[in-house]
Amino acid sequence: MMNFKTLASAAMLLGALGIGSAQAEIRIATAGPMTGQYASFGQQMKAGAEQAVADINAKGGVLGQKLVLEIGDDACDPKQAVAVANQMVNKGVVFMAGHFCSGSSIPASKVYEEEGVVMISPASTNPKLTDEGGDLVFRVCGRDDQQGMVAGKFLAEKFKGKNIAIIHDKTAYGKGLADETRKYLRKFGSKEKMYEAITAGEKDYSALVSKLKRNKIDVLYLGGYHTEAGLIIRQMRQQGMDTVLVSGDALVTDEFWSITGKDGEGTLMTFSPDPRKNPDAAPVVKEFRAKGIEPEGYVLYTYGAIQAWAQAAEQAGSTDVNKVTKALHSGKFDTVLGKIGFDNKGDVTAPGYVFYVWKDGKYDYYKD
Amino acid sequence: MEYFIQQLINGVTLGSIYGLIAIGYTMVYGIIGMINFAHGDIFMVGAFVSLIIFVALGLAGVTFVPLAFAIVLIVAIVITSVYGWTVERLAYRPLRGSFRLAPLISAIGMSIFLQNFVQLAQGARVKPMPPMITGGFTFLEGSDFSITLSWMQIIIVSLTVVLMAGFALLIARTPLGRAQRACEQDRTMAALLGVNVDRTISLTFVMGAALAAVAGMMFLLYYGVIDFYIGFLAGIKAFTAAVLGGIGSLPGAMLGGLLIGLIETFWSAYFTIEYKDVAAFSILVLALIFRPYGLLGKPEIEKV
After folding, report:
1. Within 13 Å of residue B129, how many CA atoms lie on the same side as its CB?
2. Which of B18, B7, B20, B36 is nearest to B211 (CA)?
3. CA-to-CA separations, B39 to A207, B20, B36, B72, B81, in angstroms, rounded
4. What is the average per-residue pLDDT within B124-132?
5. What percent of chain A has pLDDT over 90?
6. Helix (H, G, I), strand (E, B) or coil at B35
7. Range 183-212 of A in CB contact (< 8 A) with B
8. Of A97, A244, B202, B273, which is most buried, counting CB atoms within 10 Å of its CB?
9. pLDDT single digits (tens) A197-236
10. Contacts with A230 from chain B: Cβ below 8 Å
11. Tell me, what DSSP letter sits at residue B274?
12. Sorting pLDDT into bands at 50, 70 and 90, what band is A9?
């Protein structure tokens, strides 16, 4: 019986602690591919989120309470994304700075919508996310219709009269982007010579490469991720082709270069203006570099998403979903991405896309 | 025509890799009648072991490619064989004699374990390797379509043919092969006649793992990118190849691998790439409807 008593008092104590800690801290989360073939992006998100939470807590937290970060791993798998979303809801998370892949973000957003969690994706660019998502869904990155327009126009103008092929990897992101690009390519008076789909995760693209070679493709547009892009470039060079690869924002990781090596030289991609070059972001960039983390790709986007939410919560004076959502829709936020706001759909009002080129293992703005 | 030949080269190379892995499935099935689902992951382990040794040799200053190649081949075979042996010893032998599905479940468990083990030990990021063996031949240069045949492709195909012939001989001519065939026909009778059944089965797993190690190393050198997940996709394709060729038959596995590789490649070449897996699996279904035991498989005769 004594045991029962100690147990009971221990349980009460734990319960009290639980309530105590729930009052003193706010749980937020990031989720993305922490494992799997896109794990390098998950690591970018994790680095950005951890730094953002540390910096905000160092300045006293949000509404006087400390932020606690939860990290979810969806491996870019739509089914796992829903499971992670439910897990985060059960942990009492009030804000999600994720997910990464559009294919994960779209189904996960339905869970957050139902359970009343604000979601700001730092990376999912498929238009459906905010077009079909409700009031609680935001993103700090661009949309694939913007990205596709920039890419389609560029291909039509820069590679006029050349043979263009468009391929995608059948994912929500890859196919969405490839189709938008094709739409605008045609709108700007050009037409692709080949349109094909590949399977992500495979390693052998030799049949595709020979087919490109026979069709004398000068420029290949890929809607897909960096692992497939890297393999296709390697196999193109093996078969003696010097075709230029053009792709989207999923190539912004140095892992791309470690796959291609110098074969990747001259590869083009679209991405939002580099936040590292933003003067407001300089102190944060310095902080990252001091820790040995290069804030490439989506590191600062995740950081910025958390900043935007934290400021919205401060403006609303509460972490209540409806109040924060209202503040996000109406306010302006000073983030490492510059001064940003959100439109009615939840898309960011920041500038769209520019072209980058890979050179010597780094990417920089493309200049004609 | 040039295009056809180029695609033929692509298809035969891909098919050879499938075939090498498929032999491992088929040998185990032939002898103990069980699908070793962990075989694809043994192949993945082989690829990782090869990469680690290549890196170690690079650090040690061994830059002479043929020497590095030979060392990696031998060490990878030895280490991967130990994995194959251990998997059999831990996960399958204790279940021998229990109901048929038990080792199958255990195999799936082993597959998940190996994947997660490599993911934790080596990290989830893809592991790239710069090309080591480059160059090759280019035919019809300057014409409309030049055909390329790389050294790597020649090595893969010839190594596959040599290994295939070697293992066929081993099974047909040596005492070990005789013991294996005896176990295949009747395990109890073989034991009564003095064949060490446990040892023979262990050696079969070791042989399968050795072939998987070679396939893993070739995969690493040819594609240059590996991750902990490659065993799954390659394993499924190789298993399909083994079934198509007639599971239990060594030449069948090779034939099945080549056929799957060629169907995928030629479908991609002349139709849309999107549906290449549909094409490969439709052929499998058709083949199994007309020849339920696979192309070169022998029907099991039920004795009364």
Report:
1. 26
2. B20
3. 26, 11, 6, 20, 11
4. 84
5. 73
6. coil
7. 196-199, 201-204, 206-208, 210-211
8. A97
9. 999 888 999 999 999 999 999 999 999 999 999 999 999 9
10. 128, 225
11. G
12. low
| A145-271 fold | Rossmann fold (3.40.50)
Q: What is the pLDDT of residue B51?
A: 95
> How many degrees, rounded to 5, is the angle at CA A153 between CA A151 and CA A155?
65
Cβ of residue A77 closer than 8 Å to a chain B Cβ: no
Record: contact A34-B124, CB cut-off 8 A: yes
List domains and CATH numbers for chain B.
Answer: 2-290 (1.10.3470)
Contact (CB, 8 A) for B87 and B110: yes
% of chain A residues with pLDDT over 70: 93
Q: pLDDT by residue (tens digit) across A35-60?
A: 877 888 999 999 999 999 999 999 99
Mean pLDDT of A51-76: 93
- Residue B237, classed as helix, strand or coil, is helix
Q: A4-142+277-340: CATH homologous superfamily?
A: Response regulator (3.40.50.2300)
